[in-house]
Specification:
- A nine-stranded mixed beta sheet has the order 7-1-2-6-3-5-4-8-9.
- It is built from six helices and nine strands; from the N terminus they run αββαβαβαβαβαβββ.
- The chain is α/β, with parallel strands linked by helices.
Length: about 190
C-alpha cells in the first residue's frame, strides 16, 4: 500500500507565485497579499481569502514601469501628466491609470482603469524582478478588519490559506500608499 505524500509547501515565494499561490509580503507601510495578476484562479483565491468583492479592483505593484505596460494604456497618458507620475516613482504613490484593453476584469473590477505602483521597497523590487512581472498588491487583512503589521499577525489571520509568508521588514512608512488619479490628480487615499 502506498501512502500519498502531503502537499509540499513551496520552497520560496516565486515558486508559490508560479504555482498560482497567494503570498504575504512586506510593502512600504503594511503587509500585503499578492499573487500572479495574470492567473485568474490565483486572483480569485486572493479575493476569497481577503473576502474582497471583485468589483473593487486591485493594485499592481512593480519593480519598474516597463513591467506595468501590459496592463496600462500608456498612449492615453498625456505628456504633461507624465512628469508628475514619474517624479514620484519609485515610491509609495499608487496611480490610477487608463487600463489597457486586454487587462482582465479580475484586476480592474468595475473600472476601465488600473491602480499601479512602482515600489522602492527592496524586498518587493526583488520579488518582481525574480518573478519577471508585477504582483497583485492588496493589504493583508480581511475586508473591514485592521491591516496586518507583522508576519506573526498574518499567520494568525490567514494560517494555511496563504501559500508563502515573506518574513522581511516593512518599508517604514506610517500610512499605506497614497492613491491618485493620474489624469486628474484627484486623491482617492491620502
Amino acid at each position: 500500500m502506498f501512502l500519498s505524500d502531503p502537499v509540499a509547501q513551496p520552497a520560496n515565494p516565486i515558486e508559490a507565485l508560479n504555482q498560482g499561490g497567494v503570498i504575504v509580503y512586506p510593502t512600504e507601510a503594511v503587509f500585503g497579499l499578492g499573487c500572479d495578476p495574470d492567473n485568474q484562479a490565483a486572483v480569485e483565491k486572493l479575493l476569497a481569502i481577503k473576502q474582497r468583492p471583485i468589483e473593487k479592483g486591485l493594485i499592481l505593484i512593480a519593480d519598474n514601469y516597463g513591467q506595468l505596460l501590459k496592463y496600462v494604456d500608456d498612449a492615453k497618458i498625456p505628456m504633461d501628466k507624465r512628469a508628475d507620475i514619474f517624479s514620484q516613482w519609485p515610491g509609495a504613490i499608487t496611480w490610477v491609470m487608463p487600463a489597457a484593453k486586454q487587462t482582465p476584469k479580475w484586476l480592474t473590477g468595475q473600472f476601465d482603469t488600473i491602480a499601479v505602483r512602482v515600489t522602492n521597497h527592496p524586498t518587493v523590487k526583488k520579488l518582481c524582478q525574480q518573478f519577471g512581472k508585477p504582483l497583485v498588491s492588496t493589504s493583508a487583512n480581511l475586508t473591514g478588519r485592521p491591516t496586518v503589521m507583522s508576519i506573526t499577525q498574518a499567520k494568525s489571520e490567514f494560517a494555511d490559506s496563504v501559500d508563502f509568508y515573506v518574513d522581511e521588514p516593512l518599508g517604514g512608512n506610517v500610512n499605506p500608499s497614497v492613491i491618485k488619479d493620474a489624469m486628474t490628480g484627484k486623491v482617492f487615499r491620502g
